[in-house]
Amino acid sequence: MEKLRIVFMGTPEFAVGILDTIVQNNYEVVGVITAADKPAGRGQKIKYSAVKEYAREKNLRLLQPANLKDESFLEELRSLNANLQVVVAFRMLPKVVWEMPKWGTFNLHASLLPNYRGAAPINWAIINGETKTGVTTFFIDDKIDTGAMILSAATDINPNENAGQLHDRLMELGSQTVIDTLQLIEKGKVETTIQTDSAEIKTAYKLNKDNCKIDWTKPANEIYNLIRGLSPYPAAWCHIKDKGQEWNVKIYSADVVKETHDFPVGKLLASKKEIKIAVSDGFIQLLALQFPGKSKMEAQQLLNGMSFSDEAKAC
Where are the domains of the chain? Predict the structure, then answer.
Protein backbone atom coordinates (compact mmCIF):
# COMPACT_ATOMS: atom_id res chain seq x y z
CA MET A 1 0.00 0.00 0.00
CA GLU A 2 1.14 3.54 -0.72
CA LYS A 3 2.57 5.67 2.08
CA LEU A 4 0.03 7.65 4.09
CA ARG A 5 -0.13 11.39 3.36
CA ILE A 6 -2.21 12.86 6.19
CA VAL A 7 -4.15 16.09 6.54
CA PHE A 8 -4.92 16.71 10.24
CA MET A 9 -7.89 18.82 11.39
CA GLY A 10 -8.36 20.02 14.97
CA THR A 11 -8.40 23.04 17.25
CA PRO A 12 -7.93 22.59 21.05
CA GLU A 13 -5.18 21.19 23.28
CA PHE A 14 -6.74 17.72 23.12
CA ALA A 15 -6.11 17.65 19.36
CA VAL A 16 -2.49 18.77 19.82
CA GLY A 17 -1.71 15.66 21.86
CA ILE A 18 -2.97 13.46 19.02
CA LEU A 19 -1.22 15.45 16.28
CA ASP A 20 2.08 15.35 18.16
CA THR A 21 1.85 11.57 18.50
CA ILE A 22 1.25 11.24 14.74
CA VAL A 23 4.31 13.42 14.06
CA GLN A 24 6.46 11.59 16.63
CA ASN A 25 5.58 8.29 14.96
CA ASN A 26 7.03 9.65 11.70
CA TYR A 27 3.83 9.81 9.69
CA GLU A 28 3.83 12.38 6.91
CA VAL A 29 1.50 15.27 7.79
CA VAL A 30 1.10 17.26 4.57
CA GLY A 31 -1.27 19.84 6.04
CA VAL A 32 -2.99 21.01 9.22
CA ILE A 33 -6.40 22.67 9.25
CA THR A 34 -7.57 24.61 12.28
CA ALA A 35 -9.99 27.36 13.29
CA ALA A 36 -9.52 30.92 12.10
CA ASP A 37 -7.86 33.30 14.57
CA LYS A 38 -10.26 35.22 16.77
CA PRO A 39 -10.10 37.94 19.41
CA ALA A 40 -10.40 36.73 23.00
CA GLY A 41 -10.45 38.14 26.53
CA ARG A 42 -11.00 41.66 27.77
CA GLY A 43 -8.34 43.13 25.52
CA GLN A 44 -9.77 41.30 22.50
CA LYS A 45 -6.28 40.25 21.49
CA ILE A 46 -6.03 37.81 18.60
CA LYS A 47 -5.75 34.27 19.96
CA TYR A 48 -4.31 31.36 18.01
CA SER A 49 -5.73 27.88 18.46
CA ALA A 50 -3.55 25.35 20.28
CA VAL A 51 -3.24 23.37 17.04
CA LYS A 52 -2.04 26.47 15.16
CA GLU A 53 0.63 27.11 17.79
CA TYR A 54 1.87 23.54 17.41
CA ALA A 55 1.77 23.59 13.59
CA ARG A 56 3.82 26.81 13.50
CA GLU A 57 6.35 25.39 15.96
CA LYS A 58 6.79 22.27 13.78
CA ASN A 59 6.69 24.18 10.46
CA LEU A 60 3.68 22.23 9.20
CA ARG A 61 1.61 23.55 6.30
CA LEU A 62 -1.32 25.41 7.89
CA LEU A 63 -4.77 26.27 6.52
CA GLN A 64 -7.38 28.31 8.41
CA PRO A 65 -10.50 28.47 6.25
CA ALA A 66 -13.44 30.57 7.39
CA ASN A 67 -15.69 28.56 5.07
CA LEU A 68 -15.01 24.86 4.46
CA LYS A 69 -16.97 24.99 1.18
CA ASP A 70 -14.99 27.91 -0.24
CA GLU A 71 -13.61 26.89 -3.64
CA SER A 72 -10.17 28.42 -3.06
CA PHE A 73 -9.83 26.40 0.16
CA LEU A 74 -11.00 23.20 -1.58
CA GLU A 75 -8.43 23.76 -4.34
CA GLU A 76 -5.67 24.23 -1.78
CA LEU A 77 -6.82 21.11 0.09
CA ARG A 78 -6.79 19.05 -3.13
CA SER A 79 -3.31 20.34 -3.95
CA LEU A 80 -1.94 18.74 -0.75
CA ASN A 81 -2.64 15.38 -2.38
CA ALA A 82 -3.52 13.71 0.94
CA ASN A 83 -4.82 10.14 0.88
CA LEU A 84 -6.19 10.26 4.46
CA GLN A 85 -7.65 12.89 6.78
CA VAL A 86 -7.64 12.66 10.59
CA VAL A 87 -10.06 14.84 12.58
CA VAL A 88 -9.94 15.51 16.33
CA ALA A 89 -12.16 18.10 18.06
CA PHE A 90 -12.87 20.16 14.97
CA ARG A 91 -16.19 21.11 13.38
CA MET A 92 -18.66 19.36 11.13
CA LEU A 93 -17.19 18.79 7.67
CA PRO A 94 -19.06 19.13 4.37
CA LYS A 95 -19.23 15.97 2.26
CA VAL A 96 -16.93 17.47 -0.38
CA VAL A 97 -14.18 17.62 2.28
CA TRP A 98 -14.61 14.31 4.13
CA GLU A 99 -14.94 12.20 0.99
CA MET A 100 -11.94 13.80 -0.75
CA PRO A 101 -9.06 11.48 0.30
CA LYS A 102 -8.64 8.00 -1.18
CA TRP A 103 -8.63 6.27 2.24
CA GLY A 104 -11.35 8.47 3.71
CA THR A 105 -11.55 10.70 6.78
CA PHE A 106 -11.65 9.36 10.32
CA ASN A 107 -12.43 11.11 13.56
CA LEU A 108 -11.27 10.40 17.12
CA HIS A 109 -14.10 11.02 19.60
CA ALA A 110 -13.61 11.04 23.39
CA SER A 111 -16.35 8.58 24.28
CA LEU A 112 -17.40 5.00 23.72
CA LEU A 113 -19.73 5.57 20.79
CA PRO A 114 -22.64 5.56 20.21
CA ASN A 115 -22.90 7.10 23.70
CA TYR A 116 -21.99 10.75 24.20
CA ARG A 117 -22.04 11.94 20.63
CA GLY A 118 -21.64 15.71 20.60
CA ALA A 119 -19.58 18.61 21.84
CA ALA A 120 -18.66 17.75 25.44
CA PRO A 121 -18.29 13.97 25.93
CA ILE A 122 -15.65 14.13 28.67
CA ASN A 123 -17.72 16.50 30.80
CA TRP A 124 -21.01 14.66 30.45
CA ALA A 125 -19.56 11.25 31.26
CA ILE A 126 -18.51 12.61 34.67
CA ILE A 127 -21.64 14.75 35.19
CA ASN A 128 -23.80 11.67 34.62
CA GLY A 129 -21.76 9.62 37.11
CA GLU A 130 -20.38 7.13 34.59
CA THR A 131 -17.72 4.75 35.88
CA LYS A 132 -16.30 3.94 32.44
CA THR A 133 -15.58 5.89 29.26
CA GLY A 134 -13.05 5.78 26.45
CA VAL A 135 -12.29 6.84 22.90
CA THR A 136 -13.52 5.73 19.48
CA THR A 137 -12.20 6.18 15.95
CA PHE A 138 -14.77 6.16 13.16
CA PHE A 139 -15.11 7.13 9.52
CA ILE A 140 -16.96 10.42 9.15
CA ASP A 141 -20.36 10.52 7.46
CA ASP A 142 -22.94 13.26 6.99
CA LYS A 143 -24.17 13.34 10.61
CA ILE A 144 -22.41 14.13 13.91
CA ASP A 145 -20.39 11.23 15.40
CA THR A 146 -22.53 8.54 13.73
CA GLY A 147 -20.07 6.96 11.25
CA ALA A 148 -18.81 3.39 11.04
CA MET A 149 -16.54 2.64 14.02
CA ILE A 150 -12.98 1.42 13.53
CA LEU A 151 -11.47 1.02 17.02
CA SER A 152 -12.42 1.84 20.59
CA ALA A 153 -10.49 1.74 23.86
CA ALA A 154 -12.05 1.91 27.33
CA THR A 155 -10.87 3.24 30.69
CA ASP A 156 -12.37 3.50 34.17
CA ILE A 157 -13.34 6.91 35.55
CA ASN A 158 -11.93 7.49 39.02
CA PRO A 159 -14.81 8.52 41.37
CA ASN A 160 -12.90 11.68 42.37
CA GLU A 161 -11.47 12.54 38.93
CA ASN A 162 -12.35 15.87 37.34
CA ALA A 163 -12.81 16.67 33.65
CA GLY A 164 -9.30 18.09 33.29
CA GLN A 165 -7.68 14.94 34.65
CA LEU A 166 -9.83 12.67 32.50
CA HIS A 167 -9.12 14.89 29.45
CA ASP A 168 -5.38 14.28 29.86
CA ARG A 169 -5.79 10.53 30.24
CA LEU A 170 -8.11 10.28 27.23
CA MET A 171 -5.65 12.33 25.17
CA GLU A 172 -3.03 9.64 25.84
CA LEU A 173 -5.44 6.79 25.19
CA GLY A 174 -6.69 8.55 22.06
CA SER A 175 -3.15 9.07 20.77
CA GLN A 176 -2.45 5.34 20.91
CA THR A 177 -5.84 4.51 19.39
CA VAL A 178 -5.17 6.86 16.45
CA ILE A 179 -1.78 5.21 15.84
CA ASP A 180 -3.42 1.77 15.99
CA THR A 181 -6.03 2.99 13.48
CA LEU A 182 -3.36 4.37 11.14
CA GLN A 183 -1.55 1.02 11.24
CA LEU A 184 -4.74 -0.84 10.31
CA ILE A 185 -5.34 1.54 7.39
CA GLU A 186 -1.72 1.16 6.25
CA LYS A 187 -2.06 -2.62 6.23
CA GLY A 188 -5.49 -2.58 4.57
CA LYS A 189 -6.94 -4.45 7.56
CA VAL A 190 -9.68 -2.08 8.69
CA GLU A 191 -12.93 -3.72 9.76
CA THR A 192 -15.71 -1.34 10.74
CA THR A 193 -18.75 -1.69 12.99
CA ILE A 194 -21.94 0.20 12.17
CA GLN A 195 -23.32 2.19 15.10
CA THR A 196 -26.77 1.14 16.28
CA ASP A 197 -29.14 3.70 17.71
CA SER A 198 -31.38 3.12 20.72
CA ALA A 199 -33.48 5.14 23.16
CA GLU A 200 -30.84 4.58 25.86
CA ILE A 201 -28.06 6.49 24.03
CA LYS A 202 -26.79 9.46 26.08
CA THR A 203 -25.87 12.74 24.40
CA ALA A 204 -22.94 15.10 25.08
CA TYR A 205 -24.84 18.37 24.79
CA LYS A 206 -23.00 21.63 24.26
CA LEU A 207 -22.25 23.25 27.62
CA ASN A 208 -23.97 26.54 28.37
CA LYS A 209 -24.71 28.78 31.34
CA ASP A 210 -27.95 26.95 32.16
CA ASN A 211 -26.61 23.40 32.26
CA CYS A 212 -23.52 24.50 34.22
CA LYS A 213 -25.60 26.05 37.03
CA ILE A 214 -25.79 24.12 40.30
CA ASP A 215 -29.26 23.09 41.45
CA TRP A 216 -28.87 22.77 45.22
CA THR A 217 -32.14 20.79 45.52
CA LYS A 218 -30.46 17.80 43.85
CA PRO A 219 -28.75 14.99 45.82
CA ALA A 220 -25.18 15.64 47.01
CA ASN A 221 -23.59 13.12 44.64
CA GLU A 222 -25.26 14.68 41.58
CA ILE A 223 -24.02 18.14 42.58
CA TYR A 224 -20.54 16.74 43.25
CA ASN A 225 -20.46 15.09 39.80
CA LEU A 226 -21.53 18.35 38.13
CA ILE A 227 -18.74 20.27 39.89
CA ARG A 228 -15.99 17.80 38.98
CA GLY A 229 -17.42 17.28 35.49
CA LEU A 230 -17.07 21.00 34.76
CA SER A 231 -13.66 21.52 36.41
CA PRO A 232 -11.42 23.23 35.50
CA TYR A 233 -13.45 24.53 32.54
CA PRO A 234 -16.00 26.03 32.16
CA ALA A 235 -16.72 25.51 35.91
CA ALA A 236 -20.00 24.93 37.73
CA TRP A 237 -21.53 28.09 39.18
CA CYS A 238 -24.25 29.40 41.46
CA HIS A 239 -25.44 32.60 43.11
CA ILE A 240 -24.40 33.28 46.70
CA LYS A 241 -26.51 35.86 48.56
CA ASP A 242 -25.59 37.59 51.81
CA LYS A 243 -25.94 41.00 53.47
CA GLY A 244 -28.02 42.38 50.60
CA GLN A 245 -25.45 41.38 48.01
CA GLU A 246 -25.48 38.66 45.34
CA TRP A 247 -22.41 37.14 43.70
CA ASN A 248 -22.06 34.88 40.69
CA VAL A 249 -19.58 32.29 42.03
CA LYS A 250 -17.67 29.56 40.19
CA ILE A 251 -16.97 26.35 42.10
CA TYR A 252 -14.01 24.24 41.00
CA SER A 253 -13.64 21.64 43.72
CA ALA A 254 -15.83 20.24 46.48
CA ASP A 255 -16.39 17.31 48.82
CA VAL A 256 -19.57 15.50 49.84
CA VAL A 257 -20.37 15.33 53.54
CA LYS A 258 -23.18 12.82 54.13
CA GLU A 259 -24.86 13.92 57.33
CA THR A 260 -28.43 14.43 58.54
CA HIS A 261 -29.35 18.01 59.46
CA ASP A 262 -32.29 20.38 59.76
CA PHE A 263 -30.93 23.26 57.69
CA PRO A 264 -32.86 24.49 54.65
CA VAL A 265 -31.42 23.51 51.25
CA GLY A 266 -28.92 26.12 50.09
CA LYS A 267 -28.01 27.49 53.52
CA LEU A 268 -24.33 28.51 53.63
CA LEU A 269 -22.43 27.63 56.80
CA ALA A 270 -18.98 29.14 57.20
CA SER A 271 -16.39 28.73 59.92
CA LYS A 272 -12.86 30.15 59.95
CA LYS A 273 -11.68 27.19 57.87
CA GLU A 274 -14.54 25.85 55.75
CA ILE A 275 -17.63 26.67 53.73
CA LYS A 276 -20.48 24.20 53.46
CA ILE A 277 -23.78 24.34 51.58
CA ALA A 278 -26.71 22.38 52.98
CA VAL A 279 -28.36 19.92 50.58
CA SER A 280 -31.15 17.40 51.11
CA ASP A 281 -28.87 14.51 52.08
CA GLY A 282 -25.93 16.30 53.70
CA PHE A 283 -23.56 19.09 52.74
CA ILE A 284 -21.36 20.11 49.84
CA GLN A 285 -18.09 21.42 51.26
CA LEU A 286 -16.61 24.02 48.89
CA LEU A 287 -12.85 23.56 48.50
CA ALA A 288 -11.91 25.88 45.61
CA LEU A 289 -14.03 28.73 44.28
CA GLN A 290 -13.91 32.10 42.56
CA PHE A 291 -15.85 35.24 43.37
CA PRO A 292 -16.29 37.92 40.68
CA GLY A 293 -13.18 40.06 40.23
CA LYS A 294 -11.07 37.73 42.37
CA SER A 295 -8.70 34.90 41.56
CA LYS A 296 -9.64 31.27 42.02
CA MET A 297 -8.73 30.36 45.61
CA GLU A 298 -9.13 27.72 48.28
CA ALA A 299 -12.02 28.24 50.69
CA GLN A 300 -9.74 28.83 53.68
CA GLN A 301 -7.86 31.51 51.74
CA LEU A 302 -11.14 33.23 50.82
CA LEU A 303 -12.27 33.18 54.45
CA ASN A 304 -9.13 35.07 55.49
CA GLY A 305 -10.59 38.18 53.85
CA MET A 306 -14.32 37.52 53.70
CA SER A 307 -16.98 36.61 56.25
CA PHE A 308 -20.56 35.43 55.89
CA SER A 309 -23.60 36.09 58.07
CA ASP A 310 -26.18 33.54 59.29
CA GLU A 311 -28.42 34.68 56.42
CA ALA A 312 -25.98 33.59 53.68
CA LYS A 313 -27.33 31.13 51.12
CA ALA A 314 -26.53 29.57 47.76
CA CYS A 315 -29.12 29.47 45.03
Answer: 5-187, 220-314
